[in-house]
Specification:
Elements: H1 55-238, H2 264-279, H3 283-291, H4 297-310
Length: 311
């Protein structure tokens, strides 16, 4: 509140003969009154009046004093009235200020409450969005797990089907292999039996041929022995007696002293005869081997050399 304007101090009228002058009361400063205060004109001092010591003058002086006192009392009452009005105005202004302050507090509280409500609404919306996002993520995770489980089950089913198909194919191939092996074994057994029969027949024929050749050789040997005996008898009759050791014999007999014998032709003959005995190669077997298709050794060596060079 602006300070109130100060009232001018009233002038004390001093009457002649007055024992003690009475000062006029001053109006207190009103801090709440903003209106300008009326300025009282200063009283003319009583000393300006002609000093007449008569009764009329005293009466006039007393009347002036009474008027001044009344005026001062009226001024005091007016001042009190104005002070009361100023106090009332100050109280009303304070009430208005308090009401404005309370209204401002109410508005601020309402604004804060609105802000809190908006923040709560935003927080609730955020939490709801977070929950919705969490539900969406969980649903997506469950859907992904479901799809992964379905894919894994489908892969396992496909793998089981593929393994079952492989097992059936292997079983079929094994059955076919066993059947083919059985048929091949039967064929080989039939071939073996046929080969055995043919070999037995060839052996029988070879033995028969050998027997015939052996009989022919023996007959030829007997004939040669007889001829040699006749020649030897004729020679013995015409030549002196034989002086060779008894271990020596005719041209068809001889003694072989191992592979280191000095008679090389006799060694070669003995080795060839030993191979014939070991191999038991009959003439029929030689004829059968010669009838088989064969490749000349020179061409076989050339083909083998070509294969080695290609490698």
């Amino acid at each position: 509140m602006p300070p109130a304007a100060e009232l001018p101090s009233p002038t004390i009228a001093i009457a002649p003969g007055a024992s003690s002058p009475q000062p006029a009361p001053q109006a207190p400063a009103d801090s709440t009154d903003e209106r300008p205060q009326p300025v009282e004109p200063p009283l003319r001092p009583a000393a300006e009046a002609p000093a007449q010591p008569d009764a009329a003058q005293a009466e006039m002086r007393q009347q002036a004093e009474r008027q001044e006192a009344e005026r001062i009392a009226a001024a005091r009452l007016d001042l009190e009235r104005r002070e009361a009005e100023q106090r009332k105005a100050a109280v009303e202004a304070a009430a208005r200020a308090e009401a404005a302050r309370l209204e401002a507090q109410r508005l601020e509280a309402a604004r804060q409450a609105a802000l809190l409500q908006e923040a709560a609404r935003a927080e609730a919306a955020r939490q709801e969005a977070v929950r919705a996002d969490a539900r969406r993520i969980e649903a997506a995770r469950l859907e992904a797990e479901r799809k992964e489980l379905a894919a894994r089950q489908e892969a396992e089913r496909a793998l089981a089907a593929r393994l079952e198909a492989q097992r059936l194919e292997l079983a079929r191939r094994e059955a076919a292999r066993l059947e083919a092996a059985r048929i091949e074994a039967e064929r080989r057994e039939a071939e073996r039996l046929e080969a055995t029969r043919l070999a037995a027949a060839r052996d029988a024929a070879a033995q028969e041929a050998d027997a015939r050749r052996e009989a022919a050789r023996r007959a030829m040997g007997r004939q040669l022995d007889e001829e040699a005996a006749r020649r030897e008898a004729a020679a013995n009759a015409t030549r002196p007696s034989d002086t060779r050791p008894s271990s020596w014999s005719s041209a068809r007999r001889g003694r072989l002293f191992g592979r280191t014998d000095a008679h090389r032709e006799l060694v070669q003959y003995a080795e060839a005869f030993a191979r014939r005995i070991q191999l038991n190669t009959t003439m029929a077997m030689v004829a059968e081997a010669a009838a088989q298709p064969h490749t000349a050794p020179s061409s076989r060596w050339r083909s083998a050399a070509t294969v080695r060079s290609n490698r």
